[in-house]
Prior knowledge:
With 465 residues, the protein is an alpha/beta fold. The chain is 32% helix and 26% strand. It starts with a strand and ends with a helix. The mean pLDDT is 97. Keywords: FAD, Flavoprotein, NAD, Nucleotide-binding, Oxidoreductase.
Amino acid sequence: MADLDVDVVVIGAGPVGENVADRAHQQGLSAAVVEAGLVGGECSYYACIPSKALLRPVDLKAAVDRMPGVDAGPVDAAKVFERRDQFANPDDSGQADWLDGAGITLLRGRGRITGERAVAVEHADGTTTDVAARYVVVATGSVPTYPPVDGIADVDAWTNREVTQASHVPDSLLVLGGGVVGVEMATAYQRLGSRVTVVQHGERLVPGVEPEAARRLQASLEADGVDVRLGTSMTAVKRDGAEVVASLDDGTELRGAELLVAAGRRPGTADLGLDTVGLEPGKPLDADETTTVQGDWLYAVGDASTGAKLTHMGKYQARICGDVLVARSKGASVGGRYAKTATTTEQTAVPQVIFTDPQIAAVGHTEASAQQAGLHVRAVSYEIGNTAGGSLHADGYDGFATIVVDTDREVIVGATFVGQDVADMVHGATIAIVGEVPLARLWHAVPSFPTMSEVWLRLLETYGM
Ligand SMILES: Cc1cc2nc3c(=O)[nH]c(=O)nc-3n(C[C@H](O)[C@H](O)[C@H](O)COP(=O)(O)OP(=O)(O)OC[C@H]3O[C@@H](n4cnc5c(N)ncnc54)[C@H](O)[C@@H]3O)c2cc1C
Ligand SMILES: NC(=O)c1ccc[n+]([C@@H]2O[C@H](COP(=O)([O-])OP(=O)(O)OC[C@H]3O[C@@H](n4cnc5c(N)ncnc54)[C@H](O)[C@@H]3O)[C@@H](O)[C@H]2O)c1
């Protein structure tokens, strides 16, 4: 006999888990969420929110510094940290109250699957709550990966948690990994006054984006004074007094006050009882377009699943998952391209903004990924600084846009915007891709003068319209 019987139990109350519970509960299902740490998850306290709170002030200062006639003065790091704390204070009582107000049961403790439709929650006081549920949703997020570097476990390396919650700027910071976390935090800390070195074993930074976007970002980081080491791996690290000493495979030795490990993340599925239902612990849960993992009872969303590791995509999966549970509870069918119960956009139009300077805002395919997918494409690019809107926005505006056009269907399948303040420009491209808007129709979508969106017109003209 279970202690609690609900329609839906969600393991993990990050942004994604909370959304599944809310969506299902709002449509009549009873729901409980299990949380071992803070309600709100990694994103609220140790990832998206604090990292952007650190980046916004330095981004704004750089923009002002590029504008003749205005003066930003120096950045006050203490005030930046103080403002970050207002956004990401690790106190989850507000979020817990929200769950309570929404009528969702919060079970604080570690959840483990004990069999089909069964979850046991171990509380901090050693007691256990057994939950029986018609539907079990795994939303346990992800944890940092530690690459095989000798001594890495013994140097008190920073992860995303320490780098986003720090309240001092180290004199120098070594960053292991030139992916999204690495480049965003390199931007923030270099501009807050640290001397940053990024060690990236690939041939370029942020490998998933258009190569020219990565080149512009590298040039900008280097102009800021960041030491970027590409094609290099760290082989060993050790502490020497207050410093971390890192050995690289090219024989070089680096020293830094702190080491940030930003080498990717793995799903939080290692200690979840997956073996009790025949699944392999530690792997991302392979969810289909309806977020289903097994039978009609086990689901996975967010970083714990095989979907894109981004908050907005996790929350998209969460909305779909909630609707799938409600549909199934009524015996209705689910799935189908662009149905409300299918994560179609995961395959066609995943957007991401990298909040560096320049920002990189991209959606859908790059030219290379489209070709790998077997599409016939043509990519065209245009400098945003050559539009009136861009040139007014900042002197010598450095940035560009690229669209990738499927030449068989004459629709856009990918777009990238690079430059100052381009973050919000990507949503227009997302709409064009999801709506499969033909170029002939897009031609009639007139951008306002003088805005940076004029680049859309120039891209279409460059394509030959
Ligand atoms: C530094 C950094 C910056 C980022 N910036 C952005 C950004 O700007 N935009 C963006 O879209 N994405 C960003 N991301 C990615 C984003 O943080 C994740 O995609 C998002 O947090 C995933 O949400 P989630 O709910 O799946 O997992 P999480 O946010 O990780 O939440 C999972 C929750 O599950 C809990 N949990 C785990 N196991 C158990 C268990 N067994 N029992 C009970 N509870 C459990 C955890 O305590 C946690 O609270 C960033 C990531 C990092 C590291
Ligand atoms: N703005 C955003 O949307 C945002 C911001 C931060 C993080 N995130 C998400 O969080 C996730 C994790 O980010 P991340 O940066 O940790 O992972 P990542 O996979 O984006 O990048 C990790 C990088 O580390 C490099 N690397 C791995 N092992 C290495 C080694 N031994 N030596 C040198 N380099 C090594 C890889 O080549 C890769 O480029 C990503 O999925 C990302 O999309 C998103």
